[in-house]
């Protein structure tokens, strides 16, 4: 069954059940500054889940294009993609669990023809601490559904500890079977809706050795096991709660939010072992084979990264509100996707210039009828890709020159390798290859530790902006972040400890810093703050990081940020001289430079009011 047929059958299925098919929204959120990309079908419907009346009624369905930046590092495992289509249906205070779960079963078993014997489901275990019970109602509905198809459906608990236990219905905790935009209940802000869910998993087959040949082979296998034997293909979320100051309370209406990834459903329906073998990717894979002379089955990770990243780039650049590659916010991810695709193209041996456009044309051909904007804006997409490829070639050349500076080192430390990756786009495989030619080694373990930090920063950025106000993860942005610590320290030295941070916004071009102060700063005061910051920069101070308990950090006199809720363990960054004298000490998630001398000259360009009792400084590093 072709993907277009699956999409069509899904929408027709719900139209027959009195749902209105609504159009997909732009990938780029228009009125929500907290989210860089639309990452679920639910995103545009939150006001209606909270009780606002939707103009099309209480039953809705659609296919929504989505992008999840936090999956970038996961691409290459045959099932993860950054761009995907989410098939969704919603009940806004109309039907609930009984109708929804029965319809999902009819859709997958009867309409799409999946084998019920290979389907397993999960339900919410409950959480007494937040007063929400185990979802026994969904369990009973699923038991009836399976029994009607001649299957006994035993419900079991703690499969993650005890294994399958001959079960078909499995209880899991908050992390697995609770859904909100913010994640688990404890991570939800006040006012956020969410609720328990019931997920469908397809068994790819024990005989294929997914578990036995995986790093988890000594642990019990279950449907949420990381071994890959089971793949999630759909999730019915019962959005019936909202987070309040004193805990969770019921929403005025009980809602249903179903999401199923078209790529994964197509993989199962077409009996493939990878989403990249489906008709949504196969023409792209074949084009990469033609351009490189390499074979997909022998280079799966590089092929999947190129195919996914170019597809995602086509949709983001070609969106109605299209975003070009840059170092800022959404553009930062477009640049990262394209450059990562180029690197893997080089590894495969692609030699032709402007090959990205050749692959992008295949993407346009696949989706031109479903998402006509990618065809309409294709010339713009191709031009932006060509420009980015040209710029990156020059960056690669500069990176080689930077690598030459490491010639005399027997072991290239991981931080320097990570710098080459983050600044010049050198993958660790290329760094190792260049090093081997010179008889050098690379501290790969330290490299991956550094990259894990970078990955965590990117995940924060996917939610909108860094908590510390960073717009991206570029080296210059990190320098500005460290400078804000020096600036706060200088302000407190000039005006006293009543000065606290009230907000920040940091890009690779400037910093913007809000702080508590009632009066406009005089020219003399601005000069005094500037001089203090530059004095700390010139002293070449060390930036020291410690992990400690929150209370221990507060007891030590650390400066904490404005109104932020901290976890039980925090990172504390201190800026100190050779004798250990502290000039700054703050709770912060990072990232920072190692020594202040790399920052350059600090210059305040503007000082103004931000709000009542809050002033704002805009400054640059020269």
What report would you give on this structure?
This protein has 622 residues and is α+β, with helices and mostly antiparallel strands. The chain folds into 4 domains: 3-269, 2-Layer Sandwich (BirA Bifunctional Protein, domain 2), CATH 3.30.930; 283-396, no CATH class; 405-458, no CATH class; 475-621, Threonyl-tRNA Synthetase, Chain A, domain 2, CATH 3.30.980.10. Helix content is 38%, strand content 21%. It is built from 19 helices and 19 strands. The strands form 4 sheets. Strands 1, 2, 3, 4, 5, 6, 7, 8, 9 and 10 form a 10-stranded mixed β-sheet that branches. A 4-stranded antiparallel β-sheet has the order 13-14-19-18, with helices on one face. Mean pLDDT is 89; it is low at 461-468.
List the main descriptive attributes of the protein structure presented here:
622 residues, alpha+beta, BirA Bifunctional Protein, domain 2, 4 domains, 10-stranded mixed beta sheet, 4-stranded antiparallel beta sheet, 19 helices, 19 strands, globular
CATH H level, superfamily name of the largest domain: Bira Bifunctional Protein, Domain 2
Radius of gyration: 26 Å
Largest sheet: 10 strands, mixed
CATH architecture of the largest domain: 2-Layer Sandwich
- Low-confidence segments, given as residue ranges, are 461-468
Short structural summary:
With 622 residues, this protein is of the alpha+beta class.
Topology:
Elements: H1 3-15, E1 20-21, H2 46-49, E2 59-67, E3 83-92, H3 97-111, E4 119-124, H4 136-148, E5 155-156, H5 159-162, E6 169-172, H6 174-177, E7 178-180, E8 193-203, E9 230-244, E10 247-261, H7 262-269, H8 282-292, H9 300-317, H10 329-348, H11 355-367, H12 373-376, H13 378-404, E11 411-412, H14 414-424, H15 428-437, E12 441-442, H16 444-462, H17 475-495, E13 501-506, E14 511-516, H18 523-538, E15 542-549, H19 550-555, E16 569-576, E17 582-587, E18 602-611, E19 614-621
Parallel strand pairs: 1-2, 4-6, 5-6, 11-12
Antiparallel strand pairs: 2-3, 3-10, 4-8, 7-8, 8-9, 9-10, 13-14, 14-19, 15-16, 16-17, 18-19
């Amino acid at each position: 069954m072709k993907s277009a047929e699956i999409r069509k059958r899904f929408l027709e299925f719900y139209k027959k059940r009195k749902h209105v098919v609504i159009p997909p929204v732009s990938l780029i959120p228009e009125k929500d500054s907290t989210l860089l990309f639309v990452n679920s079908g639910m995103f545009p419907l939150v006001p209606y889940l909270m009780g606002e009346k939707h103009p099309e009624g209480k039953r809705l369905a659609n296919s929504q294009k989505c992008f999840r930046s936090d999956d970038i590092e996961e691409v290459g495992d045959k099932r993860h993609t950054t761009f995907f289509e989410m098939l969704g249906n919603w009940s806004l205070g109309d039907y609930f669990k009984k109708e929804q779960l029965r319809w999902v079963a009819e859709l997958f078993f009867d309409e799409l023809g999946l084998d019920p014997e290979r389907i397993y489901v999960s339900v919410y275990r409950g959480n007494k601490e937040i007063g929400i019970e185990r979802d026994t109602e969904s369990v009973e509905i699923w038991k009836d559904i399976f029994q009607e198809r001649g299957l006994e459906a035993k419900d079991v608990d703690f499969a993650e500890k005890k294994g399958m236990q001959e079960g078909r219905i499995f209880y899991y905790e908050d992390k697995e079977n609770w859904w909100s935009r913010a994640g688990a209940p404890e991570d939800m802000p006040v006012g956020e809706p969410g609720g328990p869910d019931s997920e469908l998993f397809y068994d790819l087959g024990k005989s294929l050795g997914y578990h036995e040949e995986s790093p988890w082979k000594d642990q019990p296998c279950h449907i949420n096991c990381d071994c890959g034997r089971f793949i999630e293909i759909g999730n019915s979320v019962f959005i019936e709660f909202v987070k309040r100051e004193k805990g969770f309370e019921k929403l005025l209406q009980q809602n249903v939010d179903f999401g199923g990834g078209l790529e994964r459903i197509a993989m199962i329906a077409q009996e493939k072992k990878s989403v990249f073998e489906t008709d949504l990717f196969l023409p792209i894979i074949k084009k990469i084979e033609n351009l490189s002379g390499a074979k997909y089955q022998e280079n799966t990770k590089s092929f999947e990264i190129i195919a996914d990243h170019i597809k995602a780039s086509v949709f983001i650049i070609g969106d109605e509100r299209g975003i070009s590659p840059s170092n800022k916010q959404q553009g930062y991810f477009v640049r990262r996707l394209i450059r990562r695709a180029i690197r893997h193209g080089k590894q495969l041996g692609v030699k032709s210039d402007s090959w990205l456009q050749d692959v992008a044309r295949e993407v346009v051909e696949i989706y031109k009828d479903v998402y006509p904007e990618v065809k309409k804006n294709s010339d713009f997409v191709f031009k932006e890709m060509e420009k980015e490829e040209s710029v990156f070639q020059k960056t690669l050349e500069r990176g080689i020159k930077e690598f030459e500076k490491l010639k005399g080192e027997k072991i290239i430390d991981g931080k320097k390798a990570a710098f080459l990756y983050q600044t010049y786009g050198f993958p660790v495989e290329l760094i190792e290859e260049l090093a081997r030619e010179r008889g050098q080694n690379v501290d790969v373990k330290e490299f991956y530790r550094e990259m894990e930090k970078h990955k965590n920063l990117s995940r924060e950025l996917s939610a909108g902006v860094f908590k510390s106000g960073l717009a991206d993860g570029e080296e210059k942005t990190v320098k500005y972040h460290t400078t804000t610590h020096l600036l706060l320290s200088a302000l407190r030295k000039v005006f006293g400890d009543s000065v606290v941070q009230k907000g920040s916004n940091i890009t690779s071009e400037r910093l913007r810093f809000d702080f508590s102060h009632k009066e406009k700063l005089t020219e003399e005061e601005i000069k005094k703050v500037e001089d203090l910051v530059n004095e700390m920069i010139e002293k070449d101070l060390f930036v020291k990081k410690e992990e400690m308990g929150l209370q221990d950090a507060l007891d030590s006199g650390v400066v904490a940020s404005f109104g932020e809720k901290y976890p039980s363990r925090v990172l504390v960054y201190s800026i100190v001289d050779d004798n250990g004298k502290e000039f700054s000490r703050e709770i912060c998630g990072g990232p920072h430079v190692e020594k202040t001398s790399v920052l350059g000259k600090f210059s305040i360009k503007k000082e103004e009011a931000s709000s009542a009792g809050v002033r704002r400084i805009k400054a640059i590093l020269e």
